[in-house]
Design goal:
Blueprint: H1 2-28, E1 32-36, E2 38-44, E3 47-54, E4 58-60, E5 63-72, E6 77-84, E7 90-100, H2 110-145, H3 157-202, E8 209-218, E9 222-224, E10 227-245, E11 252-262, E12 268-276, E13 292-297, H4 316-319, E14 329-333, E15 338-342, E16 346-348, E17 355-364, E18 367-373, E19 377-387, E20 397-403, E21 406-413, E22 421-428, E23 432-438, E24 447-449, E25 452-465, E26 471-478, E27 480-482, E28 488-493, E29 498-500, E30 505-512, E31 517-529, E32 533-535
Parallel strand pairs: 1-5, 2-12, 10-20, 13-27, 18-26
Antiparallel strand pairs: 2-3, 3-10, 4-9, 5-8, 6-10, 7-8, 10-11, 11-17, 12-15, 12-16, 13-32, 14-15, 18-19, 19-22, 20-21, 23-25, 24-25, 25-31, 26-30, 28-31, 29-30
Length: 537
């Protein structure tokens, strides 16, 4: 009976083991396929981008299978992943994203690859030199170890003399060879270091990438390809411009460009790009006057100097310093923003280095004039005024200035304006001389009348044209505005300026012949109770 039970247990064990192995075989035999994600196009926002990949057609077995898609960005917003297939017999059951730290694909631009090959070759040379030097050092050590003379029987004087001469000659030769190897080694190490710095400057290297694991179910054996979309924040672009003025009688040439950089870990090769608006140290921007207002100070605080008024501030919303050949590009408009679609494919390599992409070039009808606000800056600025500018879909960005094919510094384009005319600051022109000075005239001293104190102020603005052509000029000055009924500001002399009482500004439009100079005089008075102190003057 016991023998029978033992035999039965053995058969049951064998059967269970067989079933387990069969189940394990079927479980582990689920097909796992692999495919490269071929990047097709990228929709780039100011910060971030949507990448569209496509796989080649893959043979998919009936039933459940897994698909591993490699060459995905190393950082992905997993909530943004969308995968489509046009084959109705294949359904996607689940998607998971993971990092791939074993990136077998050696990427990089041709320049990077060439430099990397040079660096590897020079490193091999350096390793060879180090090995030779260490070999010679070993020989020298061996020579020193075996320089002991004699033994139990002693050594004759002639033999000692010969051995010393031999040792001296060999030691000198080997030591000199080692020193020469060291110098060559140092020079080679310097070459390697320079190549490494140059390679690091390119900002490219083999990086980890991402991959997607997709669980599939097919109702029958079939073939299918997949479109993959996802958002990553490892991409950015900024607009920048090149403004060229060849003559004040010709349209302004505006080249619209994009600086794009990406650190996705995958190189973009011949990819179609779409740029969406959805996200010299000298200041060349036109100064903007701000209202100058007066008010009473607390008792005992004095502020009587006209030049103690706050300096006029630049309107940072418009003019803050910023520290971005026509090809086939068209503007695509959707519900929220505009996009520049570049027809020609581009290479953009991972590593973070910015690459310029030309978007559009416009010839803009422009009204040129000169502008100066000498109280703030005794400089004449060339400005261009452009109407109907909304049609060009401009974005805020830095601009390089080229005047008569010469680099003239930088400016800033700010289209975020409700004005009908877009004003561009095109740089300084030292051939137009401006001077702003305070003058002492009759009535400019402080006087008292009853309980009122009155103070007069007078200034002169001198503008001279040293250009060899007639110049149109806009001159702007300001006068203080009162915020108190007891402070009275009275304009006395404006030299025919257009007065803006809301902003406290004076505007002149003058025409200067070659070599002509004009002087504009401004004077005003401020009256207030003599027991009060006024701030802002």
């Amino acid at each position: 009976m016991n023998l029978f039970l033992r035999a039965l247990k053995s058969k049951l064990y064998t059967a269970v083991t067989f079933c387990f192995l069969i189940s394990f075989h079927f479980l582990s035999a689920q097909t796992t396929l692999t495919a490269n994600a071929l990047l097709q196009d990228v929709d780039i926002f100011k910060r971030g981008a949507t990448l569209h990949h496509k796989t080649k057609k893959i043979a998919i077995p009936k039933g459940n299978s897994g698909l591993l898609v490699v060459q995905i960005s190393k950082q992905v917003n997993e909530n943004s992943i969308r995968i489509n297939t046009s084959n109705p017999n294949v359904s996607i059951q689940s998607i998971s994203f993971e990092k791939n730290y074993i990136n077998e694909t050696e990427g990089g631009s041709p320049q990077y690859k060439e430099l990397k090959e040079k660096l590897d070759a020079e490193k091999n040379k350096l390793d060879t030199m180090i090995s030779k030097r260490k070999g010679e050092e070993g020989v020298l050590a061996l020579l020193e170890e075996n320089r002991k003379l004699g033994g139990s029987t002693g050594v004759s004087p002639d033999k000692i003399s010969n051995m010393i001469a031999y040792y001296r000659e060999q030691y000198i030769n080997i030591a000199a060879h080692i020193e020469a190897l060291r110098k060559s080694e140092d020079q080679q190490a310097d070459r390697v270091q320079k190549l490494q710095k140059q390679l690091d400057q390119l900002g490219e290297s083999t990086q980890e990438t991402g991959q997607l694991f997709i669980k599939l179910h097919a109702t029958q054996a079939t073939h299918a390809d997949f479109d993959i979309y996802y958002f990553t924040n490892q991409v950015s672009w900024n607009p920048f411009y090149e403004i060229q003025v060849n003559s004040l009688n010709q349209p302004l040439i505006l080249a619209y460009k994009a600086n794009v950089s990406q650190q996705t870990g995958i190189d973009w090769q011949q990819v179609h790009l779409k740029f969406s608006s959805g996200n010299p140290n000298q200041n060349n921007n036109v100064p903007v006057l701000t209202p100058w207002r007066l008010s009473f100070l607390d008792h005992g605080v004095r502020s009587l100097s006209a030049r103690s008024a706050p300096k006029m501030m630049l309107n940072t919303a418009k003019l803050a310093d910023k520290a971005e050949a026509e090809e086939e590009v068209f503007v695509e408009e959707n519900q929220l923003n505009n996009s520049f679609v570049v027809a020609d494919p581009y290479d953009v390599f991972s590593g973070g280095q910015a690459q310029a992409v030309e978007l559009k070039e416009y010839q803009l009808p422009t009204e040129y004039t000169y502008f100066t606000a000498p109280k703030l800056d005794e400089t004449a600025f060339l400005i261009g005024k452009i109407t109907d500018w909304e049609q060009y879909n401009l974005l805020p960005g830095n601009a390089n200035l080229l005047i008569d094919n010469n680099y003239a510094g930088t400016s800033y384009i700010n289209p975020n304006s409700t004005e009908d005319t877009l004003t561009l600051s095109l740089g300084r022109d030292d051939r137009i001389y401006t001077k702003y000075e305070k003058v002492e005239e009759e009535g400019s001293k402080t006087t008292f009348l009853g309980k009122t104190k009155k103070r007069g102020y007078s200034y002169e603005i001198t503008v001279k044209n040293t250009r060899n052509e007639t110049t149109e000029m806009e001159v702007v000055e300001q006068f203080p505005l009162s915020t108190e009924k007891d402070i009275v500001v009275k304009l006395i002399n404006t030299s025919g300026a257009e007065v803006n009482n809301e902003k406290g500004e004076l505007h002149w439009k003058i025409s200067l012949e070659p070599g002509e100079a004009k002087v504009l005089k401004i004077s005003y008075s401020i009256s207030f109770p003599k027991d009060k102190h006024v701030s802002g003057i």
